[in-house]
Amino acid sequence: MGFRVILLDKEKFPRDKPCGGGIPQRVIMRYPYLLENKLIENNIFGGVAHTPDLKNEVTLKKETPVGATILRKNFDYELIKLAVNSGTIFTDEKLVTDIKILEDRVRTIINDSSNIDSQILIGSDGIWSTIAKKSSLG
What we know:
The chain is built from four helices and ten strands; from the N terminus they run ββααββββαββββα. By secondary structure, it is α+β, with helices and mostly antiparallel strands. The strands form four sheets. The protein has a three-stranded antiparallel sheet. Strands 8-9-10 form a three-stranded antiparallel sheet. It has a two-stranded parallel sheet with strand order 1-7. Strand 8 and strand 9 (106-110) form a beta hairpin. The two termini are 30 Å apart.
């Protein structure tokens, strides 16, 4: 759509990421590249949920998948490659340490003392989000 995009990550890629390895079936249907690029490790056909006291449980079993599992190391790296192939600039080992919301832009300050000015900043930095904290959205 004509946007210039810069993607930063604090870690060196590819890297292990233990969380977030489940994807609902609706996401797989919405993003066909997940199957096309062989990012699905296993299909999920159900599951069991227990109450905290373990006295009750609910079991779900389906004939068709309700979701899938992925390995975040492979999944995230393939997503980065897709982004780069569409024009995104990717830089790893760059930690956002601060942001400044200015009148006409956002200044993102990086751990190497560099900064990036942009009109839009999207923080996808998890539960301990620097972006959320520094923008008072935490």
